[in-house]
Amino acid sequence: MNKFKDRLDNKSKVTFEEVNNCEIPNNAEVKVIESKDAVIVKYSKVKSNNISKYKKCKGNTYINMFTGEVKKYKKKHFKTIEMIRENMRKLRLLIELNFNFRSEDILFITLTCNKLVKSIKTIKKFKENFIRRLKAKYSKKDFLYVGKYERSKNGSWHIHFLIKDTKNKKMYIPNEIIQKLWEKGFTKTKKVKKDSKVVIEGKNSNNDEEYEDLNNDNDCEDSNDDEEGENLNDDEEYDIVDYMCKTNQLYNVPINEQIYCTSKNIDRGQASKMKYEEAQAKTKNYILVKERTIEVKNADQFVNKHNKKIYNK
């Protein structure tokens, strides 16, 4: 119990570092998430005790499970960084389950506005109109997509999409058509490389930054800022999954608003637990396309090590 509390108190000292991939014992328990075209295997060296410090009670109260103290929730207007990170973990999983960069043509589309859009509700309306027009023009295609809403540094919302056609592994849509269908401003359309990399004409680090509150009463204003012209480093190459799931351009997000969207045909996967040797048998006819191991430390003391393997057909 004391270790748990100490870890919470020293949260600012917790570090996450990518390290060399670890060996997984055959009898170790792993979590397996399966979709139509992908299998993800997750392993943690130290199993969680699933003990939560807090538990929700009736109404707007919660209890501290260690002290028995009951408190009221503080009303929040915006998502916390922890909420945003959790949203991005969910988005990352959906991308990994649904997009096979090795064997499919996948487009990365950026949609920006020539006016300053300060309401996420407004950019969501623009997105719905764009998707409706896209489907109408390409009625024979079965689009599967994920989209993410982000702010520029001037406070204006824009959208990033990953999109594919489930009926054909080959797909290309010229940016001129995307811009015509979007109608709201500047667009970019790029084909993601087979190694899941894409060239971005702009530098967007994955650090969590704090931004000033840019909300005011007006939703749209004239904007002279080119979103793609801020802090540019020409021809920077990024892993598209990391780029889509970055958190630094998400601030002042209303607490009840979702910050990503998906098509209705998205595959959310089926999760189960099994021994690692069973997982190996399940992935026998799949190709390992990515593996990553993250080591967690608290004040330089080992806490855990997490390994994730992504397999595609």
Q: How would you describe this structure to a colleague?
A:
This protein is an alpha+beta fold and 313 residues long. It is built from 6 helices and 18 strands. The chain has a 6-stranded antiparallel sheet. The protein has a 5-stranded antiparallel sheet with strand order 11-7-10-9-15, with helices on both faces. Strands 4-5-6 form a 3-stranded antiparallel sheet, with no helix packed on it. Strand 5 and strand 6 form a beta hairpin.
Layout of secondary structure:
Blueprint: H1 2-9, E1 14-19, E2 29-34, E3 38-44, E4 54-56, E5 61-64, E6 70-72, H2 81-98, E7 107-111, E8 115-117, H3 120-137, E9 143-151, E10 157-165, H4 175-182, E11 187-191, E12 197-200, E13 220-222, E14 236-239, H5 240-244, E15 260-262, E16 270-275, H6 276-282, E17 287-298, E18 301-312
Antiparallel strand pairs: 1-17, 2-3, 2-16, 3-18, 4-5, 5-6, 7-10, 7-11, 8-13, 9-10, 9-15, 12-14, 17-18
